[in-house]
Amino acid sequence: MTTLMEVAQRAGVTPATVSNVLRQRGKVGAATRERVLEAVAALDYRPHLTARALAEGSTPTLALMVSSIANPFYPEFALAAERAARRSGRFLIVCNTNEDPVMLRAYLDQIAGTLSEGMLVMNAKVDFEVLRKTQARGTPVVLCLWERPETPPGIPCIAVDFAAAGALAAHHLLELGHRRIGAILAGGLDGVQAPRYEGFCATLKLENVAHPDSEVRFTTDSVQGGYQAAVQLLDEHPDLTAIFATNDLPALGAMHAAADRGLRIPEDISVIGITDIQLARESRPGLSTVAVPTEAAATLAVELLEALIDGKAGGNAPMQIAPVPVLVVRASTGPARRKKRRRQTAERSRGKR
Amino acid sequence: MTTLMEVAQRAGVTPATVSNVLRQRGKVGAATRERVLEAVAALDYRPHLTARALAEGSTPTLALMVSSIANPFYPEFALAAERAARRSGRFLIVCNTNEDPVMLRAYLDQIAGTLSEGMLVMNAKVDFEVLRKTQARGTPVVLCLWERPETPPGIPCIAVDFAAAGALAAHHLLELGHRRIGAILAGGLDGVQAPRYEGFCATLKLENVAHPDSEVRFTTDSVQGGYQAAVQLLDEHPDLTAIFATNDLPALGAMHAAADRGLRIPEDISVIGITDIQLARESRPGLSTVAVPTEAAATLAVELLEALIDGKAGGNAPMQIAPVPVLVVRASTGPARRKKRRRQTAERSRGKR
């Protein structure tokens, strides 16, 4: 992308002059003006809003609190939120709370209302009292990716129907003939990913497919966590034909665990996750997953926060619902093993005739 | 980790009371004091510096400018820098410049000296004039991961001998018998990754191994970029037995490209990268790479920045050199193809006797 600086260099003027020409302010001679506009045209420069804010010396900032910057989902969300914030000329700063409520509180106390006009908070281990205090001091807060649209949290938020995501994953595996499905839940039954597991379980129940407690493992939201959980599941239940994980990172770990014991994916075991992070697309085999509307949710979150800042959001604690999650089928899921073997046997006997 | 809040809840007091007891300040009754200390002991609570800063209402902050938050190396560096910053009770905020010099300048103008006492800058496309202006306004700046220790940039920095990293990668491949090695350079010959490629080329030259210009591809620092570059290299030079990439992301892309055309890694083609991001450890096969001292460099950067803030850094533009990069051999590199075939043939003929 062409920058103001490059235009200035080409035209042989200062960036301030370029800015003056573009905004029709200040005194700029006709010849200089022409040189600048020529450079703008030659370089196809499009002044963006942040350049304008920069020139005006005021740069309103939003802050995004993430619980773990090392989890690749958060940078992806941050990037989308930043894109949305820049549309209105705002900057985004990212604060990593390392899943520590004290850190979250400290960031909110220090940054809200001083550097940042508004706070986007990812809701892992959030203390609602702290958020309410921030609001009470006059700084709007938006909870991003609230996981239970059916029960609004009483704080402005963007909700994602994560139970539907779990249900979609379960449905996909059932359609492929899987009846013995292990589950990996990142966090616990009271954690932010629990609704995904609830949606998965409800779908299995509807279809009368058993899912005993012994076939779920609780772990951390990481590749390593998923790996260890899958090792246990595959050790104790070798008849499983599929593994559902509540997030892509543990799903990728489950794939590695299966590969390390020589199981073929998806011939011997299918694996599915939730989120559709970049890694899901780039792994081999590609990970089937249920895509969360990251881009749309980030945009909605920024728009809601900006509406709150401008006093234009309706209601006390508006909740907006992001588009529904969507199943993305890649190479990590296929027909259940038993069925496949039967078919192969049938083919072999046909071949003999 | 136990938090102040949890201690307070267990003791039935406010967090402020817990803080007062721990810091022996304020008036706290003996019975309350005992309850708090009991809770501290029971929960094994260790007050950290940030909690102390929080209690004192002053939270000094450092800012880290990264050029691409979506590149997983940066969050890893940010996490290490944050850990270092917290040791002295400071917070770290992360700003993503999206490789846009205008954004970097805007962040520096807005954040330096207001919210942040000092700035850590990752040096992709950095305009040194802008950094000098920030310094001139009284806010220390540290350039992280300066890639040419032999030519200090004139701005406080942490240098990493990236040419040595490239040399180590080349040496490893040469030792395995590779003589036909393709290269993928993320960025151009004038980019921040160029010294890695220079180190690689110098080592090949020393060993009289040819590396014509037709066997290097320039691409973006991404899995996708590496994929496309590797497809071209493998199409045009099917006799290559190894690929060196100047970073792990394009190296992972090269592995995918090889896998997608049915080449076995490392039997048919070896792949090596530089950095040792988490993905390198978690891919299958694991990626051989040259590990950059991320943790040490981040710690040095924060320490240098803090010394500058405290007026304790020696010299005008101190440069500290991080520990040397280290070769990490995983499953993606092995003996060169031709050698292997010869050996296999020999084994086969032995078998016939």
From TrEMBL, chains A, B:
<dbReference type="GO" id="GO:0003700">
    <property type="term" value="F:DNA-binding transcription factor activity"/>
</dbReference>
<keyword id="KW-0804">Transcription</keyword>
<dbReference type="InterPro" id="IPR000843">
    <property type="entry name" value="HTH_LacI"/>
</dbReference>
<dbReference type="InterPro" id="IPR028082">
    <property type="entry name" value="Peripla_BP_I"/>
</dbReference>
<keyword id="KW-0238">DNA-binding</keyword>
<dbReference type="InterPro" id="IPR010982">
    <property type="entry name" value="Lambda_DNA-bd_dom_sf"/>
</dbReference>
<dbReference type="InterPro" id="IPR046335">
    <property type="entry name" value="LacI/GalR-like_sensor"/>
</dbReference>
<feature type="compositionally biased region" description="Basic and acidic residues">
    <location>
        <begin position="344"/>
        <end position="353"/>
    </location>
</feature>
<keyword id="KW-0805">Transcription regulation</keyword>
<dbReference type="Pfam" id="PF00356">
    <property type="entry name" value="LacI"/>
</dbReference>
<protein>
    <submittedName>
        <fullName>Transcriptional regulator, LacI family</fullName>
    </submittedName>
</protein>
<dbReference type="Pfam" id="PF13377">
    <property type="entry name" value="Peripla_BP_3"/>
</dbReference>
<feature type="region of interest" description="Disordered">
    <location>
        <begin position="332"/>
        <end position="353"/>
    </location>
</feature>
<feature type="domain" description="HTH lacI-type">
    <location>
        <begin position="2"/>
        <end position="56"/>
    </location>
</feature>
<dbReference type="GO" id="GO:0000976">
    <property type="term" value="F:transcription cis-regulatory region binding"/>
</dbReference>
